[in-house]
């Protein structure tokens, strides 16, 4: 059981971001609330685009079950440790996972998300399979955490309110059930 201790003041993060990664094909283009296009933002529901995406899809829709959620949190924790980032907490559900991640050195957030998704995809491919399948949608949502009150809200309210596996710094990492 690995537990992180508080960050020494000499290592206070330069930035903390709220990162959201969505499961592959978890939000179709014909969803009643619309859909998000990676460059054009929120779009109205479009059954034609949904049908085209269904025909082009190489893999089935991904749902992050509780086992996968625990794997994602453990893999994110390890990826953060290896990259000298700090994972503050995570909340999850079937369609997406949230992380609060901070780092000290300057780093492009898009590059950080790319590296994180690569690490998470590798672990899901190894532990769940098949290897090489697509686990996440393109990109990921990133919002800068404004201040301590914002971080506290994410860790005390927003992340735990999600119906899936929740973890925050100081707690034992979630166990992966067989």
3D structure, described in words:
By secondary structure, this protein is an alpha+beta fold. The chain has a domain at 13-21 and 62-168: Transposase IS200-like (Alpha-Beta Plaits, 2-Layer Sandwich), CATH 3.30.70.1290. Helices cover 33% and strands 20% of the residues. The strands form 2 sheets. A 5-stranded antiparallel sheet has the order 6-1-5-4-7, sandwiched between helices. It starts with 14 loop residues before the first strand and ends in a 10-residue tail after the last strand.
Please sum up the structure shown.
By secondary structure, the protein is an alpha+beta fold. The protein has a domain at 13-21 and 62-168: Transposase IS200-like (Alpha-Beta Plaits, 2-Layer Sandwich), CATH 3.30.70. It has helices at 47-56, 66-83, 109-127, 148-158; strands spanning 15-22, 35-37, 41-43, 85-92, 96-103, 141-144, 167-168.
């Amino acid at each position: 059981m690995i537990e992180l201790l508080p960050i020494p003041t000499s290592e206070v993060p330069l930035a903390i971001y709220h990162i959201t990664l969505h499961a592959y094909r978890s939000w179709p283009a014909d969803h009643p609330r619309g859909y998000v296009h990676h460059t054009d933002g929120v779009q109205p529901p479009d059954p034609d685009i949904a049908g085209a995406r269904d025909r082009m899809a190489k893999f089935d829709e991904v749902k992050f079950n509780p086992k996968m959620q625990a794997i994602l949190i453990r893999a994110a924790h390890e990826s953060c440790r290896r990259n000298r980032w700090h994972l503050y907490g995570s909340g999850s559900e079937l369609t997406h996972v949230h992380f609060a991640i901070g780092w000290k050195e300057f780093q492009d957030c898009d590059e950080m998300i790319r590296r994180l998704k690569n690490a998470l995809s590798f672990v899901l491919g190894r532990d769940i399979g098949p290897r090489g399948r697509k686990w996440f949608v393109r990109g990921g949502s990133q919002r800068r955490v404004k201040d301590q009150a914002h971080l506290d809200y994410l860790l005390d309210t927003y992340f735990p309110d999600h119906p899936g596996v929740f973890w925050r710094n100081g707690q034992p990492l979630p166990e992966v059930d067989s």
